[in-house]
Specification:
96 residues, two-stranded antiparallel sheet, 4 helices, 81% helix, 4% strand, elongated
Length: 96
Amino acid sequence: MWDILAVVIAFGLQMLFCFAAKRTAVRCIPLYLLAAGFLYAGATALGLFGSYSFGDISGNQLTGLFIAVFTAVAALGVLLAWLVYWLVRAVKRRRQ
């Protein structure tokens, strides 16, 4: 359930930025957020924010993995939104 929600929210946010923004840097704000999510996942897995474990299982690595998977699923929504944006743009240019 959370994975579908992540894709839908990321898709909607990226579509909003793609069609409403004039500048490319503004259109890429969701990409910047995804990069920050992956950096946060890596820093968490490396234990830069503290160290904890669940016996044999490293809590840092497990938490970092969950964050990385969530961010990767959200990246799928952003990728789909860029694909739709490029297709709509190509169809508009072809009609002109």
